[in-house]
Amino acid sequence: MSSVRVRVAPSPTGDPHVGTAYMSLFCLAFARQQGGQFILRIEDTDQARYVENSEQQIFDLLHWLSLDWDEGPDRGGPVGPYRQSERLPLYQAAAHELIQAGHAYECWCTPERLTAMRAEQQKAKMPTGYDRLCLGKTREQRAAEPGSSDRAVVRMLVPESPPLTFTDLIRGDTNAPVPDDQVILKADGFPTYHLGVVVDDHHMGITHVTRGEEWISSTPKHLLLYDWLGWDPPRFAHFPLLRNTDRSKISKRKNPAARLVWFKEQGYLPEALLNFLALMGWSMPDGREIFTFQDVVENFAWERFSPVGPIFDVDKLDWLNGQYIQRLTDDEFLRRARPFLPGEGQDAALRRLTLPLKERTKRLAELGEQVDFLFVGNLDVPADQLVKQGLDAPAAIAALEAAESALERLAGFEPAPIEQALSDVCAERSMNRRKFFMTVRVAVTGKTATPPLHDTIAAIGRERSVARLRDAQSTLAQSSH
RNA sequence: CCCGCCAUCGUCUAGAGGCCCAGGACGCCGCCCUUUCAAGGCGGAGACCACCGGUUCGAAUCCGGUUGGCGGGACCA
After folding, report:
1. Which residues pair with A211 in a beta bridge?
2. Tell me, what's the ipTM?
3. Across chain A, how many H-helices and E-strands are there?
4. In the structure, what pLDDT confidence band is assigned to residue A353 with cuts at 50, 70 and 90?
5. Which of the nucleotides in strand B have any atom less than 7 Å away from a protein CB atom?
6. How long is the CA A308 to C1' B50 vector, in angstroms?
7. What are the structural domains, with CATH classification, of chain A?
8. Minimal CB count within 10 Å: which of A346, A348, A433, A481?
9. How far is the CA of A33 from the C1' of B64 (A)?
10. Which nucleotide has the least CA–C1' distance to A453?
11. A414-444 as b/e, with b when 16 or more CB fall inside 10 Å?
12. What residue has its CA nearest to the C1' of B37?
């Protein structure tokens, strides 16, 4: 039994990327379906771009999404270490082996020379690639010519006609361009992605290499490396690239949604985000659009991927998140809403409003503004806001006063009696219902859009409601002088 | 410039030769419900299936070309 082993291998170079979650989702689903393992590997071979707490953020955010790994740097495993910076001897050994076998060679060219060489090739409208100036030379021979440094890198010696086709799980038979003599070991002794990924995927027993579409063009390099090292190549699956609205590859510069934390900050539920990501380039056999991670596990199939790079449409995610919020129990809703509220307490008040609040919330981060009137005493609603609701100042004052005394007279303070009492007041004085209720709404909440007024007043409580109705009256009285 | 990947409503997609003068979802518009905003219900607009040419009795689906978009062409991943 050859157990499926898949991995996700992010680089700790800054805020975790949404693409990491996207690929982790499907890798995990595939691993779970097959009874295999999902591995997290940290590809920290770029010392220049390394960011200190990035790795921890990757852990935290993947855990937030419940995309938990079986093996990884934090929990170990049988084929560790799971951080590339801790596996340097492995890459160096592979590089030396390749040099011995004549599949790789040392190169001393300076970055400046390489840049100039590339510029010339472009100008001459030739394909760009290393010109093999260092091939077959000793360090001394090369040093005699200009543009050399004393620290060597190791390059692949790509043959005339390397194999360029492979079978991709998502795209089927796929062609890729002829590689040039790619650097595999840098001057600082760290491997480049190409060497690192092949060596680690092999030693870690990865059976299915999954990565973004941007890697299709370097797959022939990897095939060559597997061949030279005498290793069986894995299967490959290149996921479609998530895109910005302008169809370019999704980027933090152009799109806040490229940063995984953004979703947490905005108050998207992790299960909603997962569901949405599963809708990108993939679909359920029965066309369902709302489904769980377990549903993905049960229905996962590489053939259900579309190779087209989907644009990340936040509008649809908002809708989906709203659907998930509506389905939350009151307790669950309150628990998740807590971090987004403008203050502590008010639990009883919030509990009265959970149903209408759930129906009105797309992102939990919006909640703060929706319920701010619960977290303050006085409101200080400006007179023009009150008058704007259709009643002139004298009429508004009369209406608010009537509402005030009706609420004070009430035996209890429950939504239904409140509604009845206000409705009676409105009828007795034959006021326009819309104008009356809107004026009261603004006086008591400071806004024109709120949950149902009777629920809201009950939540605010008699004392504060009455005080606010009274405050509004005096504001109006002062303004009309 | 060189190489490669891709191509169905604004967006996400279903579709693997006749069931499609193309279905669903988001968004948009209208109506209903309604004291606001939502939610919900109902209805609507929206795709010459990028284009051209084949194959076939028959093509969104197969083949070729064109165009367009994107990706790669780093001692970055």
Report:
1. A238
2. 0.96
3. 20, 9
4. very high
5. 1-8, 10-16, 23-27, 35-40, 69-77
6. 15
7. 5-83+243-304 (3.40.50.620), 87-239 (3.40.50.620), 328-375 (no CATH), 383-479 (1.10.10.350)
8. A481
9. 40
10. B35
11. ebebbbebbeebbeeeebeeebbbbbbbbbb
12. A449
* Backbone φ and ψ of A144, nearest 5°: -70, -20
Q: What is the DSSP string of A224-278?
A: HHHHHHT----EEEEEPPPB-TTSSBP-TTT-GGGBHHHHHHHT--HHHHHHHHT
pLDDT tens per residue across span A182-237? 999 999 999 999 999 999 999 999 999 999 999 999 999 999 999 999 999 999 99
Dist. CA A341–CA A353, nearest whole Å: 14
Tokens for A235?
């299967």
CB A69 within 8 A of CB A40: yes
DSSP string, A76-116: B-TT---BGGG-HHHHHHHHHHHHHTTSEEEEEE-HHHHHH
CA of A173 to C1' of B8 (A): 23
Q: In angstroms, rounded to a whole number, what is the distance separating the alpha carbons of residues A53 and A14?
A: 8
**Residues A236, A220 contacting (CB under 8 angstroms):** no
8 A C-beta contact, residue A321 and residue A266: no
Q: Which nucleotide has the least CA–C1' distance to A307?
A: B6
Cα separation values, A69 from A40, A45, A245, A270, A458, Å: 6, 21, 32, 16, 47
Q: Indicate the pTM of the whole model.
A: 0.95
CA A50 to C1' B48, whole Å: 52
Per the CB < 8 A criterion, the answer to whether A243 and A3 are in contact is: no
CA distance A92 to A86: 12
Q: Is A388 one of the annotated active-site residues of the chain?
A: no
- Which nucleotide lies closest to A173 by the C1' atom and the CA atom? B5
Phi and psi at residue A312, in whole multiples of 5°?
Answer: -80, 105
Given A249, A252, A254, A435, which residue is catalytic? A252
Q: What is the dihedral of CA A326, A332, A338, A341, to 10 degrees?
A: 20
* Contact by Cβ (8 Å): A346, A374: yes
